[in-house]
Amino acid sequence: MTKDKVSINIISSFNHANFIGLLKNNNDFKWQINDSNYNQIFQILNDKRLNIFKKKSDISLIWSTPESISPEFKKLLNHEKANKNLIKKDIDFFFKCLKNVKKNSDIILIPNWILREPNESSIALSFSRKLGIEYHLSYMNYYLSELINKEKNFYLLNSTKWLINCGSEVTYNSKLWYLIKSPFSNEFYNEAVLDVVSIFKTLKGLSKKLLVLDLDDTLWGGIVGEVGWRNLRIGGHDYLGEAFKDFQYKIKSLKNYGILLALCSKNNESTALEAIEKHPEMVLKLDDFVSYKINWNSKAENILDITKELNIGLQSVVFLDDTPYERAHVKESLPEVTVPNLPSDPVNYSSFLSKLRYFDTSFISKEDKKRADLYKSEFKREKIKKNLKSHSQWLKTLELKITIENAKSENLPRTHQLLNKTNQMNLSTRRLSEKELNSWTNKSSNKLWTIRAKDKFGDYGIIGILSISIKNKSAKLEDFILSCRVVGRDIEKVMIEFVKDYCQNAKIEKIKGKYLKTKKNVLLFENFNKLNLIARNKHSFEIIANNKKFDLSNINIIKKI
Amino acid sequence: MQKIIQNSIDELNKILPKKKKIKNEDSFLLINKKSNLDSIDIVNLFVILEKYLKKEKNLNLSFDILLKDIDEFKTIGTLKSYLYKNFKNDKR
After folding, report:
1. A251, pLDDT greater than 90
2. By a Cβ cutoff of 8 Å, what residues of chain B touch chain A?
3. What letter would DSSP give residue A379?
4. Using one digit for the tens of pLDDT, what is the confidence trace for B1-45?
5. A527 Cα distance to chain centroid
6. Is there a contact between A176 and B40 if contact means CB atoms under 8 Å apart?
7. A62 to A8, A432, B11: CA distances (angstroms)
8. DSSP A17-53
9. Which helix H or strand E contains A93, and what residues bound it?
């Protein structure tokens, strides 16, 4: 399988060759690294003749030690007093320089500052206002994060977490520092690589969407069919029960991030459901799961059914099960599903889940928070569909209401999320940063609309984007994006009719578009063929504005433009 | 000792590009004009070896001594001989 290319600029105050080596050997992407000499951060950030400023990259990683950025901070390392205001000025200057790479990179990653070597010189003075290294380091990180939070494409990476994960003994390697000016160990750099990969996947919409869970000895201690629900170990004055309860809390927090939860367990359904509903210490309720398959079928078969039900690709699924046999079976039968090895001791489940980098998110939209509810409403809709004879009858029953409105600043994060996360129903699969999207939308020749849907079962929120660019009385369809949850509900027809109407009113004669087929947007092409477009060739099409209109009388369409 | 050498090679290979990956073969060139490895790779190899010797056998490998005996590290084979010779208690 060909891997996607990702270009990354690396600028650091120390020798990062080992980090590069590990990154290049990472199998998730094909890394194109634009390296620069180390310990020249300010020179590099201010020299626009350099290669990093000539070509746009996906990522810029700027990794520094605190003393390389702030000479005032360096005084503290020699036990001299430091002036916090001067440290602040040093950071302001650093941040000003950082902004120079803004235009040349989609994402700017900055690991937070940690010391180059462990500091254990004075316990009493660590947090002293005048001499405290930790005090000033905390301030530096706090102040930098405040600045970074004001910028859309800047992300502070938590290198303190890498240090904690590795431990101080493993993180620091004085020999590597004195010999090659590389302060950290490969274990530490590996943590950094995993986070860089993870944040890139998150921002490109490649993080996992569904967590499928086993029950016995995974969500609770014991086998419910053998011990009965009253004797399961969850919560209570029991160390293992507490561990299972904490694990459930952690899983519940993922649901609040917008991760869908499902159950897949070999049990009698009634026995397992009784346990979920009746055990007083259960944190996860049946309502938290968008689907459950509790039976004696193969787990791979059940997972496949769940993904079909939810219209989710197998590559978006993580499966957690305590039994090595079940994990191996799912791994072998469904290689696209991610199956991490749950620790053998349940007391480690919760911390294990925290360390998994599959469910990262950069933004939580309203839609994310209520995603599980949205899927449940979907089941109700499908249930009605089965009992009705025609598609149009079903649409009428739904009382579908579509609102098309101009792009608004308050909708920008969700629009950006849809643009970057939608794969299946996406015409061009162009990916833009929030800043790029904002500036594209602000051009008078470009028009971008968001599509919101609601029916009697609930509010879907913003589920689509439509955009055109206009030049010489001709429009180009740039984005035609629809959440796959609502495909087949004639919303795509509403979108095409809207474009036709808009262009007719604006006296635009031609509406053209280009197909950009990817591995994942086959669904778009299947549906596009039903929209009366005129295919010009394999890669382009035309929409005839005054073509016969689709009958959309079953849908209430509101235009706010 | 075999395990220590293999673990060290495996760990170093994680940061080496495909073309430079070390094979656990006696004739594989380390410090030699024709070797694909550069000085940073050799430093990394020694640091990793030192780590595993300490971890697995509680043995200390001084970098200064290694530098003095640099001629003994032309190949994986000579490196192995050096380690066996200097840590005699460990059977091959």
Report:
1. yes
2. 11, 14-17, 40, 43-44, 47-48, 50, 63
3. H
4. 888 899 999 999 999 999 999 999 999 999 888 889 998 999 999
5. 26
6. no
7. 10, 21, 26
8. HHHHHHHHT-SSSEEEEEE--TT-HHHHHT-TTSGGG
9. helix A84-98
Say how far residue B71 (Cα) sits from the centre of its chain.
13
Instruction: Determine, for residues A25 and B40 on separate chains, whether the beta-carbon distance falls below 8 Å.
Output: no
Q: Percent of chain B beyond pLDDT 70?
A: 95
Each residue's pLDDT tens digit, A81-96:
889 999 999 999 999 9
Measured CA to CA in angstroms, residue A495 lies from A119, A231, A381, A466, A500 at distances of 61, 55, 21, 7, 9
What span, in angstroms and rounded, lies between the C-alpha atoms of A429 and B50? Answer: 49
Token pair recorded at residue B57: 């056998």
Tell me the per-residue pLDDT of A480-509, one tens digit each, with 9 for 90 and over.
999 887 888 899 999 999 999 999 899 887
For tokens 């970098």, the residue is B63
Q: How far apart are CA A505 and CA A527, in angstroms?
A: 26
pLDDT over 80 at A154, yes or no:
yes
Among all residues of chain B, which has the CA nearest to that of A19?
B15
Please give the full DSSP string across A489-512, using - where no structure is assigned: SSHHHHHHHHHHHHHHHTT--EEE
Amino acid at the residue B87 = F
Q: What are phi and psi of A541, to 5 degrees?
A: -145, 170
Question: Beta-carbon neighbour count of residue A290 at 10 Å?
Answer: 23
Beta bridge partners of A511: A475, A543
- Tokens (6 digits) for A545: 């504005």
Residue A115 in contact with partner chain B when CB distance is under 8 A: no
CA distance B65 to chain A (A): 14
Nearest residue of chain A to residue B39 (CA atoms): A180
Chain-centre distance of CA A431, in angstroms? 13
Nearest CB partner across the interface for B63, out of A17, A18, A175:
A175
How far does the CA of residue A426 sit from the closest CA of chain B (Å)?
Answer: 36
Residue pair A455/A547 in contact (Cβ under 8 Å)? The answer is no
Q: Does A176 contact chain B (CB < 8 Å)?
A: yes
The pLDDT of residue A359 is 86
* DSSP 8-state secondary structure symbol assigned to residue A229: G
B12: left (phi over 0), alpha (psi -120 to 50) or beta: alpha
Q: Find chain A residues with C-beta within 8 A of B11's C-beta.
A: 186
Long-range contacts of A204-207 (CB under 8 A, 24+ apart): A204/A420, A204/A431, A205/A417, A205/A420, A205/A421, A205/A422, A205/A423, A207/A358, A207/A359, A207/A360, A207/A361
What ipTM score was computed for the predicted complex, to two decimals? 0.89
How far apart (Å, rounded) are the C-alpha atoms in residues A386 and A393?
11
* A18 and B CB contact within 8 Å: yes
Helix (H, G, I), strand (E, B) or coil at A109: strand
Specify the pTM. 0.75
Q: Between chains, do B15 and A176 touch, taking CB under 8 Å as contact?
A: no
Compute the Cα dihedral for A375, A377, A379, A381 and give only its sign.
negative
Q: Which helix (H) or strand (E) holds A552?
A: none
- Please check whether residue A105 touches B, CB under 8 A: no
* 3 state SS for A298-365: CHHHHHHHHHHHHCCCHHHEEEECCCHHHHHHHHHHCCCCECCCCCCCHHHHHHHHHHCCCCCCCCCC
